[in-house]
Amino acid sequence: xxxxxxxxxxxxxxxxxxxxxxxxxxxxxxxxxxxxxxxxxxxxxxxxxxxxxxxxxxxxxxxxxxxxxxxxxxxxxxxxxxxxxxxxxxxxxxxxxxxxxxxxxxxxxxxxxxxxxxxxxxxxxxxxxxxxxxxxxxxxxxxxxxxxxxxxxxxxxxxxxxxxxxxxxxxxxxxxxxxxxxxxxxxxxxxxxxxxxxxxxxxxxxxxxxxxxxxxxxxxxxxxxxxxxxxxxxxxxxxxxxxxxxxxxxxxxxxxxxxxxxxxxxxxxxxxxxxxxxxxxxxxxxxxxxxxxxxxxxxxxxxxxxxxxxxxxxxxxxxxxxxxxxxxxxxxxxxxxxxxxxxxxxxxxxxxxxxxxxxxxxxxxxxxxxxxxxxxxxxxxxxxxxxxxxxxxxxxxxxxxxxxxxxxxxxxxxxxxxxxxxxxxxxxxxxxxxxxxxxxxxxxxxxxxxxxxxxxxxxxxxxxxxxxxxxxxxxxxxxxxxxxxxxxxxxxxxxxxxxxxxxxxxxxxxxxxxxxxxxxxxxxxxxxxxxxxxxxxxxxxxxxxxxxxxxxxxxxxxxx
Length: 560
Description:
Residues 460-534 form the tRNA synthetases class I (E and Q) anti-codon binding domain. The protein is α/β, with parallel strands linked by helices. The protein is elongated, with a radius of gyration of 31 Å.
């Protein structure tokens, strides 16, 4: 029993402690509260897995609540994308909620605060208010409007709601403490005027509540027991509790906010503002570009929900922000795809091989396994003929003994096929090798059981039959930034570190079994890496994205 308790993360310890101190499991309710102002990224995956994971652990409901209080930046497209991503990760929410569901209740509570002398309308400029805030060691200065009468505040707030004032001219502020050591407690803004149509309420409202006023009260309305957020909100907890103090009923459950560390991923950015910048400046082709750290981008690239959940489970929940190497995420997708991805053959940098002693016009269909990791995956047939493609880098005219691929006078086995020997090669006028002439041993066919088929050769190559090869567009994706932490340089813009080689588009030649491949299908191209069919693919043109190579090549580059 003690071992099980020790294995809990500190968030789970908080829940367990509350259960010991009077909470019942029926009291537990969690929520994931994204703002629909962009697509979810890998950093959000930790929060999603934490909250929905707690729901599964304690058999407790989890709400999906959209913090939609800023119509200037929020869109229905983002709502739809967030729902799609959460479902794809494998989670189901109990109820779908919106902060906008509570606009009337929040407004009514704001009226009560005004009546109690705890909120007032301020009509100073944002610059004037900022100047009055003071510093962490120096008290702020009270607004000249701080002690308006209740009647005047009620009238002005109603006029704000009616749309009589321009944006930026009037705000509603909580009257707390301009000398507080917590700068957030120095009369924070509760409402601002925005003449923008909301994606759900249209133009019903001209005032919109601020995050701090909305968040805790929404938790309370929904009777969320635990409100988990990232460390940058730690200083907001005092304000969260002050706002709750103004409205809570002692007979109802009071939510509690607790914080955990944000997880940043190397060689990318996980700020929605910066991700939007990449989209708007066309550095990438959209929020779901496979180079993006968005969940939609990872899905399009070929990542599996299991690999992302395993990654999140490995990095855990911590109390201190840190940078996670993207190679750990890549490790998890390799590990999962190795188990589930069918093996196929494709050649991305073709060199023609002619087997001179193989009959012209003859085609032979060879059996090959679909996945050596999964015996139940069965076999398929691939065509073998006189003319084949192999990779350019798999042949050298001359090579030392450590080169175990094809060289003049040397032998290799063709995967699931025959042993071939390179006899000669042809070059173009620039000296580039354009064709290799080989002979094959007719008795060396893989799996035939002959003495020749059991003969050991050190190299095995993948290949495709020229006559049967499918042409496909292959998008070779690499890391979007050359620097591991591109947005932490004080003297440089993160855009300076964009990797100019993050995408290379080539033509690949694939075995014909892939003619039926559909968008989202994942494969291992043998000896090359893991690839996924892109949604751009059609019956007329196959398009594949490289998810990840078979090995971490960046580790070698960085070690040098």
